[in-house]
Fold this sequence. Notes:
Helix content is about 25%, strand content about 30%. It has 5 helices and 9 strands, in the order βββααβαβαββββα.
Amino acid sequence: MIMNTLKAGDSVPSFIVNDHLGNQQSIAQYNGYKIIIFFYPKANTPGCTAEACDLRDHFKELKDAGYVLLGVSADSEKKQKSFADKFEFPFPLLADTEKVVIDAFGVWGPKKFMGNEYDGIHRKTFIIDEKGKVERVIDKVKTKEHAAQILKN
Length: 153
């Protein structure tokens, strides 16, 4: 399967999905804001934890730069809540169990790990402008320096 990933200039499709607290999240509620949507394969795994904790540790700088953050994986609300509570994330984690957002952004596809091939979520981050257009896509996420990647236009 070929991934049809959103790219710079694309409009973000609308979506509604629950976050880790059971609240509905939609792209429409963030109209007028700059948004960071980061996709990660699985809550509570080393790389995903490093990435989300780096964003948490630099949350004030990102917020001061005008960004709203949304994390997305296919984990259940319960797993996302456990992840958010454990590491005290100040931003919503979307429980995209039906892959609504994942498919809309085109981040699900073939992966390789230790010689095995399988389908899964590709770690990507989308920077979205106030008008709902993709401004930038970060394909090669550095999990321990992700906030710096985002802030250095």
